[in-house]
């Protein structure tokens, strides 16, 4: 699986041997660059950014760092090597050889999954477009740009699949990827969370923790697909995704740490005093957490989903770490307990396991989120402060699925509309909270300097110190 790095589009899919596909992708490339210039990171096009670029799909292929002007980033098409003799791991075709072409009967479903996945990638770049203007440090600025470039590459990954395997309608879908825009009233992005704003760096850290983590779970279940090109593409994307979640986990940790330091210096837990010292009080962090967790829970779809059951039975989209699960991988006779909102109350109901596939993925996600939250709590404890961040009830502030009709507090109590009106400012960032957090967003881009509301990272990038000049503003 040699990587052709000198090609106009670097790739390890043998693009040079398929002139038609190569021409089609080369004609999509200028639209992508135009989109990047218009809706990619604002004002950044001449910066020299210390970026990591993949030069092969092997582990050591990642160790390639250097200064790059972002419009010249080597966006390419990389897929994990095929596994000799791989068979479809689940569903009614379990045990049959994987597909290297799209099976006719599953064409529409596969296209839809690929389009939905692909749509999120440019959406996140659009959402984060203005953040570079208010970076809390050069280190953070560089990490933002790294993520943006990689999301652009993930778009390339899905566009490749559409062009290579879906003919004319695939090419049309690829064009549409650059026509829908995050938050656009007429042509919004497909999934709700990708039309929300990311107006400040606290939101960004929460987004990379909670929403990129949805990416981890969705990509993992697509990496199990019986359609091998999709599986192999997603396997490679997952290697990039890990860094995005690292930014979220450590980013929130650094905010928590700074807040605790200020609380201990001032010997106070009074939010007003903490804010006056330029840090973000813990109750406000909890509200941001509540927001980003709840909009990310929506990304797993309905609790009880025939779409998900059909994707699973067809062998298109599996479960998280499918091969490690000890069951029949067909699920026809399984039963799963699902928390539902029925007749005005929250209750557990048994469903056929196939129908509950979305919910199982959401369960795995919740478990993974809790690990991060527990780490943040340990840091709070280390500072000898009595406060615990918690994940709100999964029915809180939901727009998709069984809880969309319900109004539920973070503690899981069903309440009336009136009670919600009175209470929501304690549970979600209020206008005043958002204004405060935005007031802290001042660029801090001298090497080694950091904004008041976030602690510096434990270490820098690629063996460099925190005060390395990660971005040069030429
Ligand atoms: N918003 O049966 P259901 C990432 C629709 S993040 C709006 O549950 P399904 C990244 C649904 O389309 C990972 N609509 O559907 C992170 C359906 O519509 P129809 C992205 C929604 O298909 C950070 C109806 O409701 N990847 O990579 O089982 C930065 C019934 O729902 C939503 C994927 O999502 C929603 N949240 O589940 C950058 C993987 N949820 O049929 C990148 C691909 C549901 O009535 N997508 N609906 O018209 C999928 O697997 C599925 O489409 C979903 C939805 C899990 C999203």
Summarize the structure.
Helix content is 46%, strand content 6%. The protein has 474 residues and is mainly alpha-helical. The two termini are 37 Å apart.
Can you tell me about this structure?
The mean pLDDT is 96. The chain is mainly alpha-helical and 474 residues long. Strand 3 (335-342) and strand 4 form a beta hairpin. The chain is 46% helix and 6% strand. Helix 1 runs antiparallel to helix 3. The strands form two sheets. The protein has a three-stranded antiparallel beta sheet with strand order 2-1-5. A two-stranded antiparallel sheet has the order 3-4.
Instruction: Sketch the topology as an H/E string, one letter per element.
Output: HEEHHHHHHHHEEHHHE
**Chemical compounds bound to the protein:** benzoyl coenzyme A
- Count of helical segments? 12
Return residue spans where pLDDT drops below 50 for at least 5 consecutive residues.
Answer: none
């Amino acid at each position: 699986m040699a990587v052709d790095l000198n090609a106009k589009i670097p790739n390890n899919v043998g693009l040079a041997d398929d002139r038609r596909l190569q021409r089609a992708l080369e004609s999509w490339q200028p639209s992508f660059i135009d989109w990047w210039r218009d809706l990619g990171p604002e004002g950044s096009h001449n910066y020299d950014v210390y970026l990591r670029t993949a030069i092969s799909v092997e582990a050591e292929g990642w160790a390639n760092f250097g200064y790059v002007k972002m419009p010249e980033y080597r966006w390419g098409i990389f897929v994990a090597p095929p596994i000799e003799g791989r068979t479809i791991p689940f569903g009614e075709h379990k045990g049959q050889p994987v597909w290297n072409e799209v099976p006719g009967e599953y064409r529409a479903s596969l296209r839809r999954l690929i389009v939905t996945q692909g749509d999120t990638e440019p959406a996140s770049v659009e959402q984060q477009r203005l953040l570079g203007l208010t970076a809390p440090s050069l280190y953070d600025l560089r990490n933002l740009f790294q993520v943006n470039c990689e999301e652009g590459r993930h778009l390339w990954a899905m566009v490749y699949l559409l062009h290579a395997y879906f003919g004319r309608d695939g090419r049309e879908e690829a064009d549409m990827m650059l026509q829908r825009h995050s938050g656009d009233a007429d042509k919004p992005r497909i999934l709700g969370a990708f039309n929300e704003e990311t107006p400040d760096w606290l939101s960004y850290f929460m987004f990379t923790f909670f929403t990129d983590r949805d990416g981890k779970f969705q990509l993992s279940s697509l990496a199990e697909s019986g359609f091998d090109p999709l599986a192999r593409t997603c396997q490679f994307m997952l290697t990039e995704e890990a860094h995005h979640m690292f930014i979220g986990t450590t980013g929130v940790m650094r905010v928590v740490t700074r807040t605790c330091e200020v609380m201990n210096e001032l010997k106070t837990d009074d939010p007003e005093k903490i804010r006056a010292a330029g840090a973000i009080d813990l109750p406000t962090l909890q509200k941001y957490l509540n927001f980003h967790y709840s909009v990310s829970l929506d990304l797993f779809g309905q609790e009880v989903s025939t779409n998900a059951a059909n994707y699973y039975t067809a062998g298109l989209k599996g479960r998280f770490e499918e091969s490690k699960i000890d069951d029949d991988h067909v699920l026809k006779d399984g039963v799963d307990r699902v928390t539902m909102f029925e007749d005005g109350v929250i209750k557990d109901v048994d469903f056929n396991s196939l129908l509950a596939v979305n919910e199982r993925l959401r369960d795995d996600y919740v478990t993974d989120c809790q690990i991060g939250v527990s780490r943040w709590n340990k840091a709070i404890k280390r500072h000898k402060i009595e406060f615990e961040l918690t994940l709100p009830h999964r029915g809180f502030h939901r727009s998709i699925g069984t809880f969309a009709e319900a109004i539920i507090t973070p503690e899981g109590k069903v309440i009336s509309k009136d009670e919600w009106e009175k209470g929501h400012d304690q549970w979600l960032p209020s206008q005043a909270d958002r204004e405060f957090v935005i007031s802290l967003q001042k660029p801090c881009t001298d090497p080694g300097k950091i904004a008041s509301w976030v602690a510096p990272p434990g270490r820098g990038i690629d063996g460099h110190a925190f005060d390395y000049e990660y971005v040069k503003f030429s």
